[in-house]
């Protein structure tokens, strides 16, 4: 549903629609019966749109697909197998009744949400931080545009908790989309714009940010930055691929993590890929030192741009 489009009750008395301000309302003629209270929120941008998820959720997004508001659905508490069964076998409807109640129900008339506060399922969620709730092949994915880590195999960290009888999804990601950033507790962040992949950092004892462009899409927009089991890649919308680094695809590759790391021996925080199982660095934007020898004349580089020989070393 787009702005100023309406869902009308059969008797024509009640209308549910999305205002250009981003507010969802139910009107009885000119009287407001219910509102989502999402009008003119400063951090979001019009035009707004309302969608209906395969799990029977109303989801309100702005022009950049950031969430403002969504209905709370009890189906979110079910296990992964139960959710798969719902997606395959259930159909949901949004109904504007002749009594002025907006509600969501399934084919058997079981209700999952209502605009009336007297109903059991009447809660919703309003977002204060920008997040993206994307629907891809009936798979729900909650995204924040500020992310601390990327994982080569996010599903490796999900598990079934026998104590509570529930599948625990960590919602880890393996990619960054335009407008999203990989952040850290240090003075550094990786930013994905529409055209460039830029690393921003502060040198020790310096208040000004330094910027380094890692890769860019020159003839089209960026599609995504993706950490895979065999490396880190920047994909463009014109199907071009930029290789940031190729990595060994072995039994440990599913444990790769892209994050920003720092310690007292670094001049500034470094963008690094870590093997979190063996807890060792695999690659760094500023080359990681895996020294075979120390010599008195020059440094040399090996696989994955690692420094394998240098004139000095630190503890």
TrEMBL record:
Gene3D superfamilies: Bulb-type lectin domain. InterPro entries: Bulb-type_lectin_dom, Bulb-type_lectin_dom_sf. SUPFAM superfamilies: alpha-D-mannose-specific plant lectins. Residues 1-117 form the Bulb-type lectin domain. PROSITE patterns: BULB_LECTIN. This is Bulb-type lectin domain-containing protein.
């Amino acid at each position: 549903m787009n702005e100023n489009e309406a869902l009308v009750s059969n008797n024509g008395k009640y209308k549910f629609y999305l205002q250009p301000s981003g507010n969802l309302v139910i009107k009885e003629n000119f009287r407001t019966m219910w509102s989502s209270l999402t009008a003119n929120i400063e951090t979001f941008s019009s035009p707004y749109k309302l969608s209906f998820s395969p799990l029977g959720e109303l989801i309100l997004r702005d022009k950049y697909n950031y969430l403002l508001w969504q209905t709370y659905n009890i189906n979110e508490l079910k296990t992964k197998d139960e959710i798969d069964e719902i997606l395959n076998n259930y159909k949901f409807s949004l109904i504007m009744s002749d009594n002025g109640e907006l509600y969501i129900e399934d084919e058997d008339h079981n209700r999952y949400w209502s605009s009336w506060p007297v109903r059991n399922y009447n809660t919703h969620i309003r977002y204060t931080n920008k997040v993206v709730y994307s629907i891809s092949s009936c798979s729900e994915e909650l995204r924040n545009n500020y992310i601390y880590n990327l994982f080569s195999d996010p599903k490796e960290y999900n598990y079934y908790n026998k104590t509570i009888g529930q599948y625990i999804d960590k919602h880890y990601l393996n990619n960054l989309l335009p407008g999203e950033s990989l952040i850290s507790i240090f003075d550094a962040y990786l930013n994905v714009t529409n055209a460039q992949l830029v690393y921003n950092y502060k040198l020790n004892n310096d208040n000004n940010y330094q910027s380094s462009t890692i890769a860019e899409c020159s003839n089209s927009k960026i599609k995504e930055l993706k950490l895979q089991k065999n490396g880190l890649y920047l994909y463009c919308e014109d199907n071009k691929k930029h290789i940031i680094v190729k990595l060994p695809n072995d039994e440990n590759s599913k444990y790769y993590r892209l994050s920003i790391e720092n310690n007292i021996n670094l001049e500034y925080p470094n963008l690094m890929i870590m093997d979190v199982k063996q807890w060792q660095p695999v690659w760094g934007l500023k080359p990681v030192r895996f020294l075979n020898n120390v010599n008195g004349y020059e440094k040399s580089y090996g696989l994955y741009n690692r420094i394998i020989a240098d004139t000095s070393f630190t503890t």
